[in-house]
């Protein structure tokens, strides 16, 4: 697994959330240096740490792994998630309602 790609994605989402490394490290109870090492690709977090990171960033773990997943649906949903994250919550909900309608129509409901 490419730790640099995972670290870069974590950094992107952290910045989208408006968090400094220091603020983020406090949220996940890790040192700022360790967060820096993850974001630079020098360290790959263990599973429990990765889950804590995903939860603290309030994002789907697939988004953080989207650059290293071989499964196309994981990458596509990760890209959609990334775009949605950049929007205000009300706008995210509006777009999700549109997607729900489109899915229902595709399923023939």
Keywords:
434 Repressor (Amino-terminal Domain); globular; 109 residues; 71% helix; 7 helices; single chain; mainly alpha
Plain-language structure description:
By secondary structure, the protein is mainly α. The protein has a single domain (3-106), classed as lambda repressor-like DNA-binding domains (434 Repressor (Amino-terminal Domain), Orthogonal Bundle), CATH 1.10.260. The protein has helices at 3-16, 21-27, 32-39, 47-57, 61-65, 72-85, 89-106. The relative contact order is 0.13. The model has no long low-confidence stretch (mean pLDDT 89).
Residues in β-strands, percent: under 5%
What is the helical fraction, as a range of percent?
Answer: over 70%
- Please describe the biggest sheet, giving its number of strands, its sense, and whether it closes into a barrel: none
CATH architecture field? Orthogonal Bundle
| Overall form | globular
Q: The CATH topology is what?
A: 434 Repressor (Amino-terminal Domain)
Rg calc: 15 Å
CATH class: Mainly Alpha
Task: Summarize this entry quickly.
With 109 residues, this protein is an all-alpha fold. The protein has helices spanning 3-16, 21-27, 32-39, 47-57, 61-65, 72-85, 89-106.
């Amino acid at each position: 697994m490419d730790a640099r790609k995972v670290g870069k994605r974590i950094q992107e989402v952290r910045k989208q959330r408006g968090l400094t490394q220091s603020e983020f490290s406090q949220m996940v109870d890790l040192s700022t240096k360790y967060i820096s090492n993850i974001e630079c690709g020098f360290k790959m977090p263990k599973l429990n740490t990765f889950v804590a990171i995903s939860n603290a960033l309030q994002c789907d773990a697939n988004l953080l792994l989207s650059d290293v997943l071989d499964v196309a649906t994981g990458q596509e949903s990760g890209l959609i998630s990334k775009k949605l994250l950049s929007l205000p919550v009300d706008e995210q909900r509006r777009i999700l309602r549109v997607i729900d309608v489109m899915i229902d129509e595709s399923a023939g409901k």
